[in-house]
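> call design_seq(struct)
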């Protein structure tokens, strides 16, 4: 846990680390810094829009994580896919320099 601003709701407080790409890719999320701080109950685990409850929130995080990885490592979609198994971005979202 650490103190900061929740990536999802923006509230200040104690946050839990959420690995954007979990499961088999959890270690790669750790290695590449693909984590965000989320409010424990509301935004991370239990709320209706929580990362572990909402497919829409999970997709938003996956898109953010892919863009971050591609930007920080100068990677292509194919290189991202080789590391994380899937492309989460639509063609119109793949814009160089886009956040």
């Amino acid at each position: 846990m650490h103190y900061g601003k929740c990536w999802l709701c923006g509230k200040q407080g104690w946050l839990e680390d959420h690995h954007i790409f979990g499961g088999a890719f959890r270690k790669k999320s750790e290695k590449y810094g693909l984590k965000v701080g989320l409010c424990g109950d509301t935004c991370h685990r239990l709320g209706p829009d929580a990362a572990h409850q909402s497919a829409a929130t999970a997709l938003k995080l996956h898109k953010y994580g892919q863009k971050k990885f591609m930007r920080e490592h100068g990677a292509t979609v194919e290189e991202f896919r080789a590391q994380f198994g899937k492309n989460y971005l639509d063609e119109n979202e793949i814009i160089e320099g886009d956040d």
